[in-house]
Automatic annotation (TrEMBL):
GO molecular function, a single term: UDP-N-acetylglucosamine 1-carboxyvinyltransferase activity
Enzyme Commission number, as recorded: 2.5.1.7
Official protein name in the record: UDP-N-acetylglucosamine 1-carboxyvinyltransferase
Residues modified to 2-(S-cysteinyl)pyruvic acid O-phosphothioketal: 117
Lineage of origin: Bacteria, Bacillati, Bacillota, Clostridia, Eubacteriales
Length: 418
C-alpha cells in the first residue's frame, strides 16, 4: 500500500517546534566540499532524502562519506568518476551543482541535463553561460552536458536572472579559478551567504554574497573545514503558517527572523501576531478573523516562491479575496487542484491564482504534487476537523525533516500509515 499521511485537524497546536538546518544550504555545501583537500564536517544536517541523494552522488564519484549523529564527514579523494548518473540528477536537480566544483578542481565533468520538473522547465542556460565565460568548453550531447577546461579564468558575468543555482555553481567554480570573477545580478538568498561563508572557511576569497554583486578572488587550493548550516527558513515559514491556520500559540525555535521578513510581514498583514525573539518566533492568533492578502513571489529579499503554496493554503480560509502571483517559476500551481478537492475556491489566470476565502475546508484524499505543495496540503488539513489523507509522500520527504513527529509533539493529530 502507498504510504499516506492522515491528518485530523481543527484544533490548535501548542508548545515549541524546532526547525532543522536548511536543505537548500546543506545541498550546495555538501557538493562544495569536493573543492577542498582533506576532510569537511557538516554539522547538524537534516534527515532528508535530498541529503541522502547528495551523499550517494558524492560516493558514486569515489568520495568518502560518513554519517554520525546527524553530522556528515566528507574526505575528498581523486574522483573515480566525473559523471553524475541520471538516476540521481533526475531525482534532484541540485546535482547539477557538481558541474562547477568538478570543473574547477579537476577540469572535467559530465552531468545529464536535469530536464523538466513538476514546477517548470527549469533551464540551466545561466549556469552554462557563466562557466563558459570562465573558460569551460561545454558540449550538449545525448542528453548530457559535458564540460572540460584547463584552469578556469576569472571573468565578469552578468546573470539575466538572479538564479540561486547558477550563482552557487559560479561562486564555487570561481573560487579555484585564476584571477578575479565578478558575478552581477547574483542571487541574494541567505543560502548563498551560507555557501560563501563555508567557501571562505575553506580558504576562498568571496566578498559581497548577499548583495547583487559578488566578487571572488580565485585561490590555488581550498581545504576541508567544519561548518554548521543556517536554519531552514522555509521549514520555519511552513510551521508559522500551520500555526496561523490552526489559530495556535506556537513557538518556533532555531530561526533567523531576518531571513523570514517577507513571510512575517504577510502574516502580520493577515492579522497574525508574530513576536520576534533572539532565535525563535512566537505565533499567536490576532483579535480578528484573518484576512486574505495578495502575494507576489520574487527572488530574495522578496516573498519566496518556496512559501507560495503554504500561504495559498492559508489564504483559502481567510476572509475576502487574495491574489497570489508566481513570477519565479512558470508552472507552480499544481497544488491548486488539490486544494480545490478540499473545497477551496481558486481560479488560475495565467501566473496568478485568485483565492476566495471559505469558512472551512473539507477533508479529501489528496496528493503532494511537489515538496512545498505537500506542506501546503498538510497545513490545509490541519485547519479542518475533517480527516484528510495525503499521498505521494516522497516529495515531502525530500525537504521536511520528521514533519509528522514534529507536529505530533505540538499536539497535532497526524500519522503516517502504510
Ligand atoms: C533554488 C532552490 C529552490 C527555490 C529556487 C528559487 C535549491 C536546492 N533549490 O532552486 O528551492 O525554489 O532556488 O528560490 O536551492 N533559470 C533559468 N536559467 C538557469 C537557471 C534558472 O532560466 O540557468 C530560471 C528557472 O527556470 C526559474 C528561475 O530561474 O524559473 C529560478 O531558478 P533558480 O533560482 O535557479 O532556482 P534553483 O537554483 O533551481
Amino acid at each position: 500500500m502507498e504510504e499516506k499521511i492522515v491528518v485530523t485537524g481543527g484544533k490548535p497546536l501548542q508548545g515549541k517546534i524546532k526547525v532543522s538546518n536548511a536543505k537548500n544550504a546543506v545541498l550546495p555545501i555538501l557538493i562544495a566540499s569536493l573543492l577542498g583537500d582533506g576532510e569537511s564536517k557538516i554539522l547538524d544536517v537534516p534527515h532528508l532524502t535530498d541529503v541522502d541523494t547528495t551523499c550517494s552522488v558524492l560516493q558514486h564519484l569515489g568520495q568518502e562519506v560518513a554519517r554520525q549523529n546527524g553530522h556528515i564527514m566528507i574526505r575528498t579523494v581523486e574522483p573515480t568518476s566525473f559523471e553524475a548518473p541520471y538516476q540521481y540528477v533526475r531525482r534532484m536537480r541540485a546535482s547539477f551543482l557538481l558541474l562547477g566544483p568538478l570543473l574547477a578542481r579537476y577540469g572535467r565533468a559530465k552531468i545529464p541535463l536535469p530536464g523538466g520538473c513538476a514546477i517548470g522547465s527549469r533551464p540551466i542556460n545561466l549556469h552554462l553561460k557563466g562557466l563558459e565565460a570562465l573558460g569551460a568548453k561545454v558540449n550538449l550531447e545525448h542528453g548530457h552536458v559535458e564540460a572540460n577546461c584547463r584552469r578556469l579564468k576569472g571573468a565578469q558575468i552578468y546573470l539575466d536572472f538572479p538564479s540561486v543555482g547558477a550563482t552557487e555553481n559560479l561562486m564555487m567554480a570561481a573560487s579555484l579559478a585564476k584571477g578575479q570573477t565578478i558575478i552581477e545580478n547574483a542571487a541574494e538568498e541567505p543560502e548563498i551567504v551560507d555557501l560563501a561563508n563555508y567557501l571562505n572557511a575553506m580558504g576562498a576569497r568571496v566578498k559581497g554574497a548577499g548583495t547583487p554583486i559578488i566578487k571572488i578572488e580565485g585561490v590555488k587550493e581550498l581545504l576541508g573545514t567544519t561548518h554548521t548550516p543556517i536554519p531552514d527558513r522555509i521549514e520555519a515559514g511552513s510551521y508559522m503558517v500551520a500555526a496561523a491556520a490552526t489559530k495556535s500559540d506556537l513557538t518556533i525555535e532555531n530561526v533567523i527572523a531576518e531571513h523570514l521578513k517577507p513571510v512575517i510581514s504577510k502574516l502580520k498583514e493577515m492579522g497574525v501576531q508574530v513576536d520576534e525573539h533572539e532565535s525563535s518566533l512566537r505565533i499567536r492568533p490576532g483579535e480578528e478573523e484573518l484576512k486574505a492578502v495578495d502575494i507576489k513571489t520574487l527572488p530574495y529579499p522578496g516573498f519566496p516562491t518556496d512559501m507560495q503554496a503554504q500561504m495559498m493554503a492559508l489564504n483559502c480560509i481567510c476572509k475576502g479575496t487574495g491574489v497570489v502571483t508566481e513570477t519565479v517559476f512558470e508552472n507552480r500551481f499544481m497544488h491548486v487542484d488539490e486544494l480545490k478537492r478540499m473545497g477551496a475556491k481558486i481560479k488560475v489566470e495565467s501566473r496568478s491564482a485568485i483565492i476566495e476565502g471559505v469558512k472551512n475546508l473539507s477533508g479529501a484524499p489528496v496528493k503532494a504534487t511537489d515538496l512545498r505543495a505537500g506542506a501546503a496540503l498538510i497545513i490545509a488539513a490541519l485547519s479542518t476537523e475533517a480527516s484528510t489523507e495525503i499521498g505521494a509522500l516522497e516529495h515531502i520527504d525530500r525537504g521536511y525533516d520528521n514533519i509528522v513527529g514534529k507536529l505530533q509533539e505540538v499536539g497535532a493529530s497526524i500519522e503516517r500509515i502504510g
